[in-house]
């Protein structure tokens, strides 16, 4: 377990205005806010920059926008910049198209353990459900589930008990919901910057 104030949340984005706004709204409503939020921007345009500048002051902790020029999908490069800039000891990574549960940071803090990284999941909303979302509007997840608007819904419900740690044989990581110690990420030189494209 780690105190949430020692956590840096890294939100990856690229020209996704409404999803980013919804994601950051989720971080405004955490039961335990992180120590800081870094927005890892893979070259978004001026409209995204303007939205971020507008939203940063509303976040419950210090927040910074890290950006580099758009030269294709180079997420790993901007993630490494965030790794170097992070003030927290523990990094929780998510994507701008993910809306965090109110206990997202609290749960990651509870699961933090030396020598382990944490891998979470997400569920997918169909277009109709996504269109119904707006910052400040509450849409119960069970209503979306019953209406058939969630894909992989079981992955989206918060489990009120600890996850069993085991080697699932999964190859690679899912960057939309993961956490690791900063020192461990530095030991492996962060993310492979020669890899350009979707995924980590």
Index terms:
single chain; 200 residues; alpha/beta; Spore Coat Polysaccharide Biosynthesis Protein SpsA, Chain A; six-stranded mixed β-sheet; two-stranded antiparallel sheet; 7 helices; 30% helix; 18% strand; globular
Short summary:
This protein is α/β, with parallel strands linked by helices. The protein is built from seven helices and eight strands, in the order βαβαβαβαββααββα.
Q: Which helices and strands, and how do they pair?
A:
Blueprint: E1 7-13, H1 17-28, E2 36-41, H2 46-55, E3 63-67, H3 75-85, E4 90-95, H4 104-111, E5 118-119, E6 124-125, H5 127-132, H6 141-146, E7 150-151, E8 177-181, H7 182-187
Parallel strand pairs: 1-2, 1-4, 2-3
Antiparallel strand pairs: 4-8, 5-8, 6-7
Word description of this protein:
There is one protein chain. This protein is an alpha/beta fold. It is built from seven helices and eight strands, in the order E-H-E-H-E-H-E-H-E-E-H-H-E-E-H. The strands form two sheets. Strands 3-2-1-4-8-5 form a six-stranded mixed sheet, with helices on both faces. A two-stranded antiparallel sheet has the order 6-7. The mean pLDDT is 84.
Helix content estimate: 25-40%
Overall mean pLDDT score? Answer: 84
- How much of the sequence lies in strands comes to 15-25%
* Shape annotation: globular
Largest sheet: 6 strands, mixed
What is the CATH architecture assignment?
Alpha-Beta Complex
Can you identify the CATH class? Alpha Beta
Number of domains: 1
